[in-house]
Amino acid sequence: DVQLQASGGGLVQTGGSLRLSCAASGFTFNNYAIGWFRQAPGKEREGVSCISRSDGSTYYADSVKGRFTISSSNAKNTVYLQMNSLKPEDTAVYYCAPTKQYYDGVDANTCSGPLYNYWGQGTQVTVSS
C-alpha cells in the first residue's frame, strides 16, 4: 500500500523558516520525480518545487525561488522542502506526491499536479504577518 506522509508544517511569523518532510512507505522514489504542491483556500493547487530522482534536477516556482530548497535522502526514502523567508502568501496546505510515470528530469511542465498521484493528507503551513 503506497503512502506518502507530509509533515513539518506549523505556524510561523513572516521571515521564519520551516522544514517539511515527505516520507514514503510501500514505494521507492528511485526513478520518479517527487513534487511539493500547495493549495490555499479558494485557490487552485500549484506546483511549488519538484525533484527528479533520476538526474537530480530540480524545479522551483518563481514565487519561491531563492527561498525554498528541495532535497532528498535515499537512505530515508524521504524528500524535504526547506522553506526560508516565509511570507503570508505562502500560507497553504502543502502536499507531496510522486509522478505517475518516469520523466527525464523536471521542469515547469513536469512539476504539474495532474502528472502526480498518491496524494496524502498534506501539512498546514500558516505564516502570520
Describe this structure in words.
The protein is globular, with a radius of gyration of 13 Å. Strands 2-10-9-4-5-6 form a 6-stranded mixed sheet, with no helix packed on it. It has a 4-stranded antiparallel sheet with strand order 1-3-8-7, with no helix packed on it. A hairpin with a 6-residue loop joins strand 4 (33-39) and strand 5. The mean pLDDT is 93. The chain is built from no helices and 10 strands. With 129 residues, it is mainly β.
Distance between the termini: 40 Å
Q: How many helices in DSSP terms?
A: 0
Derived from helix and strand composition plus strand pairing, the structural class reads mainly beta
> Uncertain runs with pLDDT below 50, 5 residues or more?
none
Task: Quote the beta fraction.
Answer: over 45%
Briefly summarize what is shown.
The chain has 129 residues and is mainly beta. The chain has strands at residues 3-7, 10-13, 18-25, 33-39, 46-52, 58-60, 68-73, 78-83, 92-98, 123-128. It is built from no helices and ten strands.
Write the SSE topology.
Elements: E1 3-7, E2 10-13, E3 18-25, E4 33-39, E5 46-52, E6 58-60, E7 68-73, E8 78-83, E9 92-98, E10 123-128
Parallel strand pairs: 2-10
Antiparallel strand pairs: 1-3, 3-8, 4-5, 4-9, 5-6, 7-8, 9-10
What structural keywords apply?
129 residues; mainly beta; six-stranded mixed β-sheet; four-stranded antiparallel β-sheet; 10 strands; 46% strand; globular
